[in-house]
Design goal:
The protein is an alpha/beta fold. Bound molecules: nicotinamide-adenine-dinucleotide and zinc ion (2 copies).
C-alpha cells in the first residue's frame, strides 16, 4: 500500500480540495478502515457552509461511513482483515461517568470523527477498534452507510420511550424524519402523523408508513385531534430544528404526552414552558443526540433484517473526485433523501 491516500479536505467553507495526504497508521488498539461509502448529512452541510465546527478547518469531514478492515493494530483482537464494518463515530474516553452510561456526547473528552477530527471523505481512516462493529457481508455498502443516521433515530425512540400503540406526530419528513417514520412503523406506533411543507417529502413519508400526512401547518392541530380521539398525540418528534415548531409541539401532545427534542436549533434558542401545565398534565420534553453504542448495533440489526426501506436513500451517489459538486447541488435535489460518496 502507498503511504499516502486521496482525501477530500474542506480547506475553507464551501471549498473541497482533493489532496494526497499521509495515510493514517493505526495505533496498537486501532484498525485502519478502507472506506467504501460515506453519506452526506445535514451536519456535513453545516460544516461545508461554515456554520458548524468552522474552527476545525482545514479538515476531512464525513462520519456516516462503512468499509472493510485494511490493517489491524497489534493489540486488536476479535476482528479480521477484509471484514466489512460500520463505525461508531463518537469517541469517548471510555471510562468517565457519562461514557459508562452510553452518554458519550457528555464525555468531557469527547471527539467525533468528521467533526472535531478528520473523518471519512478519504480512502482510509484509522479508528479505535472498540468502536468498530462487524457487519454482515450480505448487506451492501450503500445500506450499511445508513447505520449512523438510523442510530440517531433509534436513540430518539429509546429516549422518548416510544412503544407500540402510541400515537406519534413527526414534524419534518426530511431524510431523518423519513427514518423516524420507518422506525415508528416497526415499533408499532399508531397512528403515525407526519407534517412537512413539501408535498414531495410528505408523500415519501406516506410511502414508508405514515398513516396521515399534513402539508398545511394551519390544519395540523385539527388533524392530530381527529386521529387521536380528541386527546392529542402521545409523542411529538420535532425533526426540523425550528424553535417555533417546538412551541407548537406542546399543543399537539395529549395530557401526559412527551415532546422528543431532536431537530437541531441555533445555540441558545429557548422555549417558553408553561410550568403549571407541565406539572398538572405531567408532560415532558426529552432530548436525544446522535446514535452511539447500542443504538449503532440496533440500527445495524434493523438494516440487516430489511426492516428499513432504503430505496429512497440509495439513489444518488458521486465518486470522491466529484464531492464538490455533490455538496454544491445537494439543496437542489429534495427527491434524494441521501447522497453518498463512493470511495472504494
Ligand atoms: N438529535 C440528533 O441526534 C439529530 C441527528 C440527526 C439530525 N438531527 C436534526 O434533525 C433535523 C432533521 O434532519 P434532516 O436531515 O431530515 O433535515 P432536513 O433539513 O433535510 O429536513 C427537514 C424537513 O423539514 C421540513 N420543514 C421545514 N419547515 C417545516 C415546518 N415548518 N413544518 C414541517 N416541516 C418543515 C423540510 O421541508 C424538510 O423536508 C435537523 O434539524 C437535523 O439537524 C438531529
Ligand atoms: Zn450525520
Ligand atoms: Zn468519557
Amino acid at each position: 500500500m502507498n503511504a499516502t491516500m486521496k482525501a477530500a479536505v474542506l480547506t475553507e467553507p464551501g471549498h473541497f480540495k482533493l489532496r494526497d495526504v499521509p495515510r493514517p497508521k493505526p495505533g496498537r488498539d486501532d484498525v485502519l478502515v478502507k472506506i467504501s461509502r460515506v453519506g452526506i448529512c445535514g451536519t456535513d452541510m453545516h460544516i461545508f457552509n461554515g456554520h458548524y465546527a468552522a474552527e476545525n478547518l482545514p479538515m476531512i469531514p464525513g462520519h456516516e461511513f462503512t468499509g472493510t478492515i485494511a490493517e489491524l493494530g497489534e493489540g486488536v483482537k476479535g476482528l479480521s482483515f477484509g471484514q466489512p464494518v460500520v463505525v461508531d463515530m463518537n469517541i469517548g474516553c471510555g471510562t468517565c461517568y457519562w461514557c459508562r452510561r452510553n452518554e458519550v456526547l457528555n464525555c468531557p473528552d469527547m471527539q467525533q470523527m468528521g467533526i472535531t477530527m478528520d473523518g471519512a471523505f478519504a480512502e482510509y481512516i484509522s479508528v479505535p477498534a472498540r468502536l468498530v462493529i462487524p457487519a454482515p457481508d450480505t448487506v451492501s455498502a450503500d445500506i450499511l452507510a445508513l447505520t449512523e443516521p438510523l442510530a440517531c433515530v433509534v436513540r430518539c425512540a429509546r429516549k422518548a420511550e416510544i412503544t407500540f400503540g402510541q400515537s406519534v406526530v413527526v414534524l419534518g419528513a426530511g431524510p431523518i424524519g423519513n427514518l423516524h417514520v420507518q422506525l415508528l412503523r416497526t415499533i408499532g406506533a399508531a397512528p403515525i402523523i407526519v407534517a412537512d411543507l413539501s408535498p414531495e417529502r410528505a408523500e415519501m413519508a406516506r410511502e414508508v408508513g405514515a398513516d396521515v400526512v399534513v402539508t398545511d401547518p394551519a390544519k395540523l392541530r385539527q388533524v392530530v385531534l381527529e386521529h387521536t380521539g380528541g386527546r392529542g398525540a402521545d409523542v411529538v418528534i420535532e425533526s426540523v430544528g425550528i424553535s417555533a415548531l417546538y412551541r407548537n409541539a406542546f399543543d399537539l401532545i395529549r395530557k401526559g404526552g412527551h415532546v422528543a427534542a431532536f431537530g437541531i436549533t441555533g445555540a441558545g434558542e429557548t422555549l417558553p414552558l408553561d410550568i403549571l401545565r407541565t406539572i398538572l398534565e405531567e408532560n415532558s420534553i426529552k432530548g436525544s443526540v446522535a446514535g452511539m453504542g447500542q443504538d449503532m448495533h440496533d440500527a445495524l440489526t434493523l438494516l440487516t433484517h430489511g426492516r428499513i426501506d432504503t430505496r429512497l436513500f440509495t439513489k444518488a451517489s458521486y465518486p470522491l473526485e466529484e464531492i464538490q459538486s455533490a455538496f454544491d447541488t445537494l439543496a437542489d435535489r429534495p427527491g434524494d433523501l441521501k447522497t453518498q460518496i463512493v470511495i472504494h
